[in-house]
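One-letter codes give the sequence; backbone shape is given numerically. An example follows:

. . .
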Amino acid sequence: MQHHLIKSAMCFQILLYSNFRKMTSQLREVFLLLSTGHLFGLYNPNQVADALAIPKASLYRHLKAFSLYQWKSLLVRIGCTLALAEIRDVESKSAATRSRRCVTISVDDTNDPRDGKLLSYCYKWWSKKHNNAIRGRNVLGITIKIGSMIIPLNLCIVSKQGRGNMDKLSCFVAMLKAVLDFFDTSGVDLRKYPITFDSWYGSQNLVESLSDMGFNNILIHGKSNYVMDIDNKTAKLSAHKKQIQLRQKQWGCSKLSYRTKATSRTFGSFVLLFFLDMAKSEQCWCLATPYGRVKYSEYGLNITV
């Protein structure tokens, strides 16, 4: 246990000292204290202060010296630094090991319900879980999956109001550029790995923005009303699914699936994968651009080229 604590504390210490050299020594100590507190189930300054019987006002006083820009930079640098070490380790392995690790970038947002009336960035957001609009914060996140490990790379609270506020696509593009800049500086190209989205993000603007940034492997969860051309037949996906037969033991797929080439005015040419989601007992679709091999794993749909 002692070795695990020392190793974890040294990891955070190296990250803080190497990336934020202008940080005061008191603030570094507070960060290390809060980071180590996570190992004991203490996730905020109040819990840490109560456990150590120290005044919480002193912790907050040092934390207030950190600007919003520094907080965002710290979040990006910590996540990207951890992911960088894992990616370099994967890239040093054989092709078979790299395929099994299946490095994939994922983008999604979630609603964080909030009851406080004086909190910032709280608006009415539609929640699929509650099937209603709830008051809270909408958090947009970019994560990377390496094997069974999922590492957050960038997070942002999306605003609905205010002058010059950006939509989710603009926020995502800005967040992704910050992540790419970090890895480009470190000599690692993230653009060669697939990037995945749910159906909410599916649009021509999304594909064009990613293509301009250099991404070629794009995976989008399809909607039943998407109009596709398959074998010279143009129809919605809900109509196409009635004409296909799901198969077993397809390459890289552990569930019943059917893979084919398709085209659409919105996404161009791509690979279309029909698969059976046993948890929901329904047939689903995903789009992969450009042509590539789509691999299904227990952690989601990924492209393996």
Q: What stands out?
A: The chain has nine helices and 13 strands. Confidence is low (pLDDT under 50) at residues 291-305. The CA atoms of residues 276 and 283 lie 5 Å apart. Residues 68-91 form the longest helix (24 residues).
